[in-house]
Every structure is written in structure tokens, then in C-alpha cells.
Amino acid sequence: MNKANKIIKVEGLERSFPSTEGKGETQVFGDVWFDVKEGEFVCLIGHSGCGKTTLLNILAGLDQATSGHVIADGFAVEKPSLDRAVIFQGHALMPWMTVMGNIDFAVSSRWPAWDKEKRRAHCQQFIDMVHLTGSENKKPAQLSGGMKQRVGIARALAIEPKVLLMDEPFSALDALTRGSLQDELLGIIAQRGQTSFMITHDIDEAILLSDRIVLMTNGPEARVCEIVENSLPKERTRSDMHTHPNYYPMRNHLIEFLVNRSKSFREELASASYDPKNPPVVRPAADGDTLNQVAS
Amino acid sequence: MSQDVKDRLKAMVASIGFLVVFLAAWNAFVVAQSGPAADMDPELAALLGPQAKGESALPTPGDVGSEIWGHISNPFYDAGPNDKGVGIQLAYSIFRVLTGFGLAALIAIPLGFLIGMSKLAAQALNPYIQLLKPVSPLAWMPLALYTIKDSEISSIFVIFICSIWPMLLNTIFGVASVRKDWLNVAKTLEVPPLRTAWRVILPAAAPTILTGMRISIGIAWLVIVAAEMLVGGTGIGYFVWNEWNNLSITGVISAIFFIGVVGMILDLMLGQAAKLVAYAE
Amino acid sequence: MGALSNVYDPEEILWKGCPCGLHATMYEHQAALSGAEGSRFYAAESTQGTAPRDQGPALETLSDLQSPASQSEGPSWDNQEEVMVNVAKSALLKGLFGTDMNRRNFLRAVGSTTAAAAIASVIPIDKAIANILDANGPLEKTNLNVGFVPITCATPIIMAKPMGFYEKYGLNVEVIKTAGWAVSRDKSLSGEYDAAHMLTPMPLAITAGAGSAATPWTMPAVENINGQAIVLATKHLDKQDPTKWKGFTFGVPFEYSMHNFLLRYYVAEAGLDPDQDIQIRVVPPPEMVANLSAGNLDGYLSPDPFNQRAVYDGVGFIYKLTKEIWPGHPCCAFAASQKFIDETPNTFLALFRSILDATAFSSAAENRSEISAAISPKNYLNQPTTVIEQVLTGRFADGLGNVRNEPDRIDFDPFPYHSFAVWILTQMKRWGYIEGDVNYAGLAEQVYLATDAAAVMKDMGMTPPTTTYESYEIMGKTFDPTMPEAYVDSFAIKRG
């Protein structure tokens, strides 16, 4: 996997806002370095306030970094691109358009030359994929929360992006719906080999979906604490993953981070061994083989 | 019979009940006001009106009803420049309102769009809009008559100037408050600005714009009556003034009835249009 | 030469400098036509002789120019028809030959008698001359808008429409009902109305720039004399004495109105200061009755039919007719802009004639019932015919239980005496509507077209008054139009 093409490279990214007292600037995060390789699913975990959404917006091209840059497929990201689809936290569907209309709006932006028939057929394929067949002509207001987010997923994937960026896409859903959608997303992504980057604060979601997990400390001045490699086998599902011996080491490591280290990591940062360009990579597993300093 | 139909039927019966009670009270009031005819020299009596002989100045509902029926049964007669059927007069007023309103919409909506999309423009122009908005439309009349030198165009101008503000403000507000998510969706889809305006901002702001249009046409209809009373010539406002000139309360009440009906129809039409562009989130 | 020449004489110089051939230069021609003493728009037809006052510098030049011609044979100035025929012939030949040199060469070559016959064979000269004499020239426009405020003062302007007086003079006039005088003034100033019904003080105020931008305005004719009244609310039956009116609120239809000036005059004669002891409010005439009935007004001096309407509706009584204050006072006027007269003189003349004709018809007592029926409908006054008939015939209920008979309650007399204007100006000065030195006679003669009215009336077979200045006796006080400033000074109650 290390040899795989890096689709996204985040290099020394920093974002500051004018401070509320009107004097100087407050840095939300800084010196952020990580990457997303082709076909990989990377999650970013952190508490609210560490600038997760801001980071995703910079990746999408909707926001500008104060310094540093994002390289997507070899080019610096300056503005949004159809190559990077976004699934928003709120579903962000246009309420005056039908399910078909919302997806078609995206498809016709991607392929303006396509005729209506061709677009329809393409849209239908993705509506079927998220199991919304029969709801094509419904307006978002007539759909449940889960169904709305399925439309969001279909809309994002319908433009066949190189990277799928997701900002806590399931956080507004109830636990049951969230679970089934996670399973579905896992299936779709695996099947399509879709390169994905997701922001979440849900540990189980991260363990289920991701190949690697970027841990971000609390803001302001948030940093990448370390990068956790998922030690569970690829063929995992929500129902059976907790039976794997590596599940609890993974989970405990992440909980430990969220509960304690995310706050106290400032001291660790000060130690000479921390290199922001190559944050420590860990692989929590039952056999105790945890530390794995791999140069990226 | 479903509950919904039953409720509507009940409301209708209550509505009719209110009307009947109101008309009966009105009639009783007028009858009570009329004193007995005074004993009068017939030669003198011939020179005086019914009121001077003890009748009430107020007409009965029946008088008003037959007056309204008289107007409805012959709405388009033309007996000279100062005496035309109520249909023709209403047509003049509606034409003026729609012209002034239409011109205002043509300017207010695109302008509101531009201002709404730019925070700077919104802040720079806001003081002027706030200053001009509360000016009574009729205060523009002397200025319009003096500069335009044509009472017809002046009336249309007054309608224009009074209907532009609610539409402008609502368009600005509607455009400025389009959800950021929707704009971000358009951005990530690399939708060009014009297509974003047309496919995203316009439909998103349409309900707010329509509300502004609905307020505007209501004001325009209020103002045209006053403007025509002032300038005269033609239109339903002139019609009211002409009846008032004859001190005909019956005529004035029937004119109020027609003004109300047309105002209601104009509002209903925009209400229907608002339904078409409404969306639930 | 010119109008008195033999047009077939090759030695006569016909068209030297100006169109009529009477003047050496165009400048002199213009000067004669617009001479201050003469008629400004009427000169085109009456040219000379009919001008009311045969004097002034411009006309002296004219008589100098005439003298050689009048000694020669041919038509004389005494026979106006012959003069006109000759002018017409001259105009026709000019059309034929273009320049005077051509005409003279042609006549020398063929001889004048042969020439006359030859020309007559190609042009129906008699018919052409008849056409020229028949009218004052073609009407520049025939579709006119004339504004009126729906009151009986406007009777001649209104009835001229249903009774065909405008048509008689080839005009298609729409009489447009107007909500009030301010609107009437604004629509006249903006040119929407070609001419309009105004109040006699208004053209003076417009010309002087009081209450609006100064614009030269003219008043060719008065509409009505008398015809207004002081009406009091029924509750003031016991106050039929102006000394008891302290604290009253009165309505008048307009600031620049005879109503305002007569009311002020009347209460001031009773020792009340109209600006302090009573309140005077401008109220549109139709709203007078409702305000009286609601108690907002104690009384008003207003035009009819709203005086009679108060009686008809039982809310007030007629306390005093204005003819009892000043018998024969002017009230409303037929007014037009100077621009309308200058740009369309023939149309204006036709309109003027129809108004004069209609005014004469309205003045005759035997026509009043017929007129009442013609102007009562919705298109005109929109009033019960009984009300209008009581106003116009002068047999009316006064609201005190009497039926009075005053045939001259309202009358119609078009002549715009300059002295009317002077009196109005004295009152405007007296009450502070105009300030500083007032050129009473100058303004009066500029705005009130008495001289023109006299000329047209004479031409129409009417008998105009011989003087444009008269002296009046108003409530026992004499007004001498030659001493306006002394008149203003003589009042005890006045402004300034």
C-alpha cells in the first residue's frame, strides 16, 4: 500500500483566524502533514474545535489555508473540483428538486454534453445503488433523514470523483440508521475501490470504515498526534468486527487518545523525537506489536 | 365525509352566518336612523333631498346590493371621458398597477440579486434604501407630476416607486440568506456563476422574493386608488372620487366592494405563484 | 403697396419684406402684430381698422406706411372685406410666381387684363379667396382636452360639449373632470390640458409665480359672475351675524380664489381678522358638505352645487349669496397658457369663440333648465338635477324653510375686465399673498385679455363693453381701479 499513488498530500497545512479580541491571530491547527493513497480510506478523528471541518473544506477547495498546501493528484488545490466530491454533514440537498433532480444537477455539471436520456440512466444506476429505487420523484422533505443522506452519497458518487470527502456524514442520524448506512457505504466503497477521506468523532465508525486513522489533538493550535493503522482485516463488518482480537486494542487506543492524550499531547509534542512531517505511526494489536515507525 | 371537508363546511356556514348578522345589523341601524317624514310644503319638498326629509344618510344593504348589481350587469359602458363602466375603470387601474409593478420587478429582482450577493453593496446601499423605503408613495406624486409632466406616467411611476422597495429588500434578504451548504454544493460541482444563480440561488430565494412581490402588489393596489383620487381622469380611484363628489355613500360603498374584490384576486394570484415556488426543508 | 395695391399692376411692389406686404421689414411686421396696445392673436385677421385702440408707436408706423396707398385708387381700409380679398389675391399670386420680380415681368409681358383672366382660368380664385375669408386659417389641431372642476361655475365650458358648441367651431373637445384646482393647474402647466377652468385669481398667481413656478398665463374670459354663497351649519341658525363668528372654522376651495378673498373681505368688514379670529381651511368642494355635517367646518364660502347640496342634504343653510356682497363679482375663468395661444392661434380662437358662444347661451335665463339637465349626469357634474336646477334658475330652498327667487344668483358674462384683476391683486397684496411693489395694471393687462375678448366679441356680433376698467362698490366701499395702492392702504385689517 505504501507504494500506491498518493492522491492527496497535505503539507504543512495551517489555518488561523483573526482572534476574537481583535488582536493578532488564533491558529486553529498548524504543521499538519498526512496523505491519502489511491484506494485508501482515511479517517480523521478529533474533538470538536480542532478544525476538522475547516480542514476538510480546505481539502475540498472551499476554504483557503493560511500557509502550507494540499496537493491533489499532483496539483495544488486552489478551488473546488469535480474530482473531489463532498458529502456534507447536513445532507445539503436542494429542497426544490426531486431525488432525481438533485443527482441530475450534479451529473449534468460533470458531463454537460450528455443528453437527458444518458444522464437519467446514469442517475438511476446510483439511485438503485443506494436503494432508493421508486423514490426518484420525491422531494427531500418527503424522505427520512437516512434516505436524504443516501441521496447525498449517490449525488457525490454519481460524478465519479477521484476522492470522496465526507464531513461526519452520519452524525445527524439515529444509531440504527447510522449502522445500516455505514455497512452500505463500506460495501459501496470496497466495491468501487473509492479513495475516501472522512471526518468523524465516532470510534467504531472509524474502525469499521478506515484503513488509517489520523488523530488530531484539541485546538487551538491542533496538531496531528499520530497515525493509527487499522489492524483489523479488510473483510470486516459491523456485526462481527468486535469478535476480532485486535478490535479492543484498536478501540482502547483510540479512546485513550480521545479521553486523555488529545488534551495532554502538548507535552509529547515538545519532546525532541516528534517530527510533524512524519508523525508516529502505530498499529494497535493483540500481539503487542504496536510501534511501527514507518517512513512515509 | 372526511374531517377536513366537515371543518371546511363548518367554516363556510360560520362565514355566511357572520355576513347575515352583519347585513341585518346594518339594515336595522339604517332603518332606526330614518325618522318619520316631516310635514312639509310640497313645493319646498320637491327642492330637497331625501336626507333633508328625515331619511338616513346611510344606504341599506339592499341599496348597495342593487347598485353593485347595476355596475356588474353593465361593466363596460362608455358615456364620455368622465363616465365609464366599473369594468373599464378597474381595467385602467389594473393596467397601471401591473405596469408599475412589472417595471419595479424587472429592476428590483436583478438589482436585489446583485446586492444580495455582495455584502459590500448591501451595506453601502442599505442606508439609502432605508431612507427611501418609508416615504409615502403619494409624497412622490407632486415631484412626479412636476418632472414627468404627464399624470398617466406619474401614476405609473408612483406605483413603481412604492412597489420596488419590498421586492428589493426581500430579494436582497432572500439571496443573502441562501444556505451556504447549497452554494458549497454548487461550488464543489464547479457550476458556473450564472447557472448557480439560476438553478440554486433563484429557486432558493424565490419564496422570499414572492413574499416581497405579494407585499408590493398589495401596496400598489392601495396606492393606485389614492393616486387616482388625486389625479383623476380614469381608474377605480377616480370612480370613488366621482361617487364621493356626488356625496353618494351607496356609490362609495360599492366602489369599496370592487376595490376589495380586485385586491383579493391580485393577492390570491401571487399566493398561488408563491405556492408554486415554495419548498419544505 | 401691400394690402391696398392692385395686384395685377406690374409697377406695384407687392412683397418687399414681409408676408402681408404692409411692412418694409419682417421686424416691423412682427412689431405691428404684437403691438402692446393691439390684439396679440387677433391681428392676423383684423390686421388693421378693427384694432380697438388706434394708437401706440407700432401702429403709427403702420399709418405712415399706409398713407401713400390710401391716396391711390383701389380698396380703402374702411372696407375690411375688400382688404381681405386683396390680401388673399396677393397671397395666391405669390404662390404662383414665387418672387415679385417674376410677377411683374409676367404682367408686363402679357398685360394685366389678360393676365387676370389667364390666372383665373388655372386657379379657381374666387373659391380660394372664399376659403381664406371663411375661417381664420386652418385649425392647427382639432382634438383638445379642456379640464374642469365639477361645479356650476364651469357651466359654459361643460355644456359646450353636450350642447355642441365646440363642434360648431370645428373642434373635438374632451372636457375632463379634475379633482381640484391644484391638479387642474399642474395638468395645465404640464400641457395635458390645452385650456382649463380656473379661478379668476389663478392666472394672475401663476403669472406672478405665487404658489407655483412663474409661467406666463392668460385669462381670455371670465366664466361666471356671482353664484357662490356663504353656507353655515344648521346648528348655527342663531348666529346669522358675522360678529358672532369668532372661533369659527370656514372652508374655501382654494387659496387663490374669489371665495377666499370675498370671505376675508366680508368678515373683515364685520371687524374680524380672518387670520386670527376665524380659521380658514382649504377644502375640496365635494368634501365641504361632509365636513360641515361632521362638524369639522362651521361654514364655508364655496362654489355651487355644494351650497345647494348642503340644503338638499339638510346639513346647512344658505346664509348669504355672494352677489349680496359684491353684485356682479367674477368667480371662475377660462384660462390658457400663453404658449397654447402662440403655437396654435387659430385653434385657440375657435375655442375662444365656442366658449363665448356657450357663455352667452348660458346667460339667457330661458336656457337654464335645459342646461341643468345636460350637465347633471355622471359624465359632467354628477349631481341630482334638482340641485343644479335650483342653482341655475335661482329658484331655490335656502335651508331656512323658504323658497327664494333670485334669477341672478349666478350669471355668465365672459368679459375679463382689467379692473377685476386689479381688485384681485389688491386683495392678494392686502392679505400678504404677494409682496413688494405690484404693477397692478401691467399684470392685469398681460393676463386678462380684455382687448382681445372685445375684438372677438365684436366680430361675433356681440356688444363688448367700451371700457376695460370699472369702479365697484363693495359693501358700501368704493374701489377705484386707478388707485389700487390707496385702496389697499384704506383697509383697517390687513397684513404687512
UniProtKB/TrEMBL annotation, chain A:
<comment type="similarity">
    <text>Belongs to the ABC transporter superfamily.</text>
</comment>
<dbReference type="InterPro" id="IPR003593">
    <property type="entry name" value="AAA+_ATPase"/>
</dbReference>
<keyword id="KW-0547">Nucleotide-binding</keyword>
<feature type="domain" description="ABC transporter">
    <location>
        <begin position="8"/>
        <end position="243"/>
    </location>
</feature>
<dbReference type="InterPro" id="IPR005890">
    <property type="entry name" value="NO3_transporter_ATP-bd-like"/>
</dbReference>
<dbReference type="GO" id="GO:0015112">
    <property type="term" value="F:nitrate transmembrane transporter activity"/>
</dbReference>
<protein>
    <submittedName>
        <fullName>ABC transporter ATP-binding protein</fullName>
    </submittedName>
</protein>
<keyword id="KW-0472">Membrane</keyword>
<keyword id="KW-1003">Cell membrane</keyword>
<dbReference type="InterPro" id="IPR003439">
    <property type="entry name" value="ABC_transporter-like_ATP-bd"/>
</dbReference>
<keyword id="KW-0813">Transport</keyword>
<feature type="region of interest" description="Disordered">
    <location>
        <begin position="270"/>
        <end position="296"/>
    </location>
</feature>
<dbReference type="GO" id="GO:0016887">
    <property type="term" value="F:ATP hydrolysis activity"/>
</dbReference>
<dbReference type="InterPro" id="IPR017871">
    <property type="entry name" value="ABC_transporter-like_CS"/>
</dbReference>
<dbReference type="GO" id="GO:0005886">
    <property type="term" value="C:plasma membrane"/>
</dbReference>
<dbReference type="Pfam" id="PF00005">
    <property type="entry name" value="ABC_tran"/>
</dbReference>
<dbReference type="InterPro" id="IPR027417">
    <property type="entry name" value="P-loop_NTPase"/>
</dbReference>
<dbReference type="GO" id="GO:0005524">
    <property type="term" value="F:ATP binding"/>
</dbReference>
<keyword id="KW-0067">ATP-binding</keyword>
<dbReference type="InterPro" id="IPR050166">
    <property type="entry name" value="ABC_transporter_ATP-bind"/>
</dbReference>
UniProtKB/TrEMBL annotation, chain B:
<feature type="transmembrane region" description="Helical">
    <location>
        <begin position="12"/>
        <end position="32"/>
    </location>
</feature>
<keyword id="KW-0472">Membrane</keyword>
<dbReference type="GO" id="GO:0042918">
    <property type="term" value="P:alkanesulfonate transmembrane transport"/>
</dbReference>
<keyword id="KW-0813">Transport</keyword>
<protein>
    <submittedName>
        <fullName>Nitrate ABC transporter, permease protein</fullName>
    </submittedName>
</protein>
<dbReference type="InterPro" id="IPR035906">
    <property type="entry name" value="MetI-like_sf"/>
</dbReference>
<dbReference type="GO" id="GO:0006811">
    <property type="term" value="P:monoatomic ion transport"/>
</dbReference>
<dbReference type="GO" id="GO:0005886">
    <property type="term" value="C:plasma membrane"/>
</dbReference>
<keyword id="KW-1003">Cell membrane</keyword>
<feature type="transmembrane region" description="Helical">
    <location>
        <begin position="94"/>
        <end position="116"/>
    </location>
</feature>
<keyword id="KW-0406">Ion transport</keyword>
<comment type="similarity">
    <text>Belongs to the binding-protein-dependent transport system permease family.</text>
</comment>
<keyword id="KW-0997">Cell inner membrane</keyword>
<dbReference type="InterPro" id="IPR005889">
    <property type="entry name" value="NtrB"/>
</dbReference>
<feature type="transmembrane region" description="Helical">
    <location>
        <begin position="247"/>
        <end position="266"/>
    </location>
</feature>
<feature type="transmembrane region" description="Helical">
    <location>
        <begin position="219"/>
        <end position="241"/>
    </location>
</feature>
<keyword id="KW-1133">Transmembrane helix</keyword>
<comment type="function">
    <text>Probably part of an ABC transporter complex. Probably responsible for the translocation of the substrate across the membrane.</text>
</comment>
<feature type="domain" description="ABC transmembrane type-1">
    <location>
        <begin position="90"/>
        <end position="270"/>
    </location>
</feature>
<dbReference type="Pfam" id="PF00528">
    <property type="entry name" value="BPD_transp_1"/>
</dbReference>
<dbReference type="InterPro" id="IPR000515">
    <property type="entry name" value="MetI-like"/>
</dbReference>
<dbReference type="GO" id="GO:0015112">
    <property type="term" value="F:nitrate transmembrane transporter activity"/>
</dbReference>
